[in-house]
Amino acid sequence: MPRISYQHLTTATPVVSTHHRIKILKKVVLVALAIIAVRLFFIQIIEHNDWLAKADEQHTLLETIVAKRGEIYMMDKGEPVAVALNQTTYQIIIDPAVTDKDEIKHALEAHAKEYIVVDLEEVYRTEGLRYSIVAKNVPRDVANKIAEKNISAVWFQKNNQRVYPEGEMASGLLGFVNADGLGQYGVEGSLNDLLSGKDGLLKTTADVNKVALSIGNDNIKIPAEDGKNIVLSVDRGLQKGVEELAVESINSTAATNAAAIVMNPNTGEILAMANLPNYNPGDYGAVKDASAYMNYTTEVPYEPASVCKNFAFSAAINEGVMTPDTTYFNEGYEIIDGWKIQNAEQRSSLYGTINMRTALYWSLNTGSIYALKLLGGNPGAITAQGREKLYDYYYNKFRLGQATGIELIEAEGYIPDPNEGWGRDSVYANMTFGQNLGITMLQTATAFSAVVNGGTYHTPTIVKGVLEDGELKAESFIEKINDKILSDDTSAMMREMLINNRNYKVRGGIDKAGYAIGGKSGTAQVIKDGAYDDTMSETVGTYIGFVGPEGELPNYVIMVKMWGEGQYLDGGIASNLFDSLSNYVINYLKIKPKA
């Protein structure tokens, strides 16, 4: 049998010669060299300046030179004393691309946990991030402990943290500085630009870890401009005493809040400005309600009630249509625009013909309404002329319902238009005794100062000057107004009536002999659910007055306000605090009585 043989079949593959392969390789190499040559040409010739800038950027450290925040001072026995200071702290900055995450995390959590301001895990998850502030307001000793770890690409930027050596004192006036270094509320907020100064910029050569290799004046592009050291007109001792007496008054009454102003009516200088209760501006985040930050003397318009009778009476006297001895017939109420407006004081001895001195003494609403009628030239009715004249005095002369211009954050408030809207007669009748309008304590105290100081309106101020090289230099940052708005005679008549209001037979002889002390109380209804609460279950008590030697122009004006949610607080309660403050002012400021 013949043998069968099997042949294994394979697929044929073209054979490429070695010579051909070399030729292809040469072409590839030539193309690559050409591409490299072209790229080098672009880098070295065309893009030379761009790459030079990038190289320089890699070795240049740009660092902000933080301006030193100006400090705040009060006066104390004629000398400035600091009430808001700077303490050196540090920001800790890392380069996440270089800094070891575990090292820096362990160091921060061990020594500076309460100062960490970022989520470190998130920082390291952020692609391409080369700069991150990881901690702020770190004290020097804590920063030193972290620096001793010698962790790569960690820098310490010096900053100034705000400290308040007086604790809670004057917190509503001073405000605070937040974690970003910005002033908030009070003087810190209103004068933030002056206190902050302007940061500078440092440019210097650095190594690969961004560590500065050389620092000198030539490297500084923009030098820092430190903030101004502001000296307030506030007297530290007076401020402290006013606050202590206000706290005592709160603790002995149903009030939960009190505010007070002491000012020089002849210059407009504020000597004390209190808002109670206080808070600690060094730990501002601990407050439960942001309303604690408010300065109630400048930021909150309210209805001060019968203290506004001073302004209605002054307007009528100044226009020559009324004197303290002018009489009218008091029935105990008025019907205006269908509304019955009553006197709070309804004793029978006041019914019938009485004079305006008596009307102010007993705070009769019918008396201030009569002054409005006289302004309009018709003793029997309120007229458009009367409304317009009252508006002119309230808004244009006394500047009620508009910012005073003081160096603080202010609310404007409002004075109703004399001719637009329904029920203008009743609105303006209520305005004569301080309802149906909105004005701040500071506006009220400044206008009252003009009533009793001889008739001149002075823009209030709380800044005495700046401290430079340890020396107090007078400087003003506002436009001052000094307008004569009332006659000397008008002011003298008003002082006489206000002193009469504190007649010793009624006040119990509390005022010291040889001093002229006059004032006026106010008890204001509050608006609930869009209407006045006629039950008087909650009221705001106000008292405003002046203090000085007998027979002379007043040295000081004092205004107090007391309130509490759901509490009845009348002008009498506020007057008790005024009594304490006036005696304290006399003793503290050593006001000498008439010889």
UniProtKB/TrEMBL annotation:
Key words, A-Z: Membrane, Transmembrane, Transmembrane helix
UniProt main location, coarse: membrane
Gene3D superfamilies recorded: DD-peptidase/beta-lactamase superfamily (3.40.710.10), Penicillin-binding protein 2a (Domain 2) (3.90.1310.10)
Domain Penicillin-binding protein transpeptidase residue range list: 259-580
Localization in the cell: Membrane
InterPro entries recorded: Beta-lactam/transpept, Beta-lactam/transpept-like, PBP_dimer, PBP_dimer_sf, PCN-bd_Tpept
Keyword Transmembrane helix belongs to the record: yes
Annotated SUPFAM superfamilies: beta-lactamase/transpeptidase-like, Penicillin binding protein dimerisation domain
Domain Penicillin-binding protein dimerisation: 65-207
Transmembrane segments: 28-46
Protein name: Penicillin-binding protein PbpB
Gene source species: Candidatus Nanosyncoccus alces
